[in-house]
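ok so I'm stuck.
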Amino acid sequence: MGIVPMHLLNEPQKMLSMISQRQECLSDNIANMHTKGYRRKDVDFSQYLNTGISSRLEANLVEKYGPSPISSSSTGENITPEEELAKVQENYLLYNVAVRRLSSTITEIKTALNVSANG
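replied:
not stuck anymore, here's the structure
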């Protein structure tokens, strides 16, 4: 094990990866909204939350989406640009939360390294 505990960066990295996957799904939904037979896709954050980190925003997202990371709608629901753009905005907010969490983790690691170097 090195000086920097890399496991502390795994959870924020996983969250940012899922946010990126969700953005791709939402973009695909908008691009294919008029494609016959296309089923709406989205990303579920529940697997991320099972790692022990949760917040009210993340918990609300879990209640709204299904059990797998990327899921397709089986109902054949119509895709509206307004709803998809609202989900893009939600994703943007979640991205900001994840980036702040990552920044905070990096700051904590820097502080720990400085304390250990001076102690």
